[in-house]
Amino acid sequence: MTITVDASKATAVFRPTRPGFHLYSSDLPPDGVQGLGVPTRFLVGGGLAATARPTADKAVRPLLLRELNVTLRVYPDGPVTFTLPVRRSGHSGTATVSYGACSATTCMAPVTDHITRFTY
Hints:
mainly beta
């Protein structure tokens, strides 16, 4: 994952490390659907304040898990970029991210509430 900040926005690029892996939608409930899936989250703090909700550069699609009779909302396989309008104050900030990456058969260990500190 890469995070950048400019005068009016923060950007997070989530890149699954293996081909064929997708990320879960940011609109999943906090605990997933029936305990499945980790919603993708991108929040800022410190000297950054969000002025709107983050937007993703990819459209969400349904993923039906027939064996479990569950449909999850996921982004297409590969990287997803989130853009978050921000207001800056000071010279440092934090970004907090959560995400889960899975393929059709395997899930990587989820990342929850990982905080990155940076200066700008």
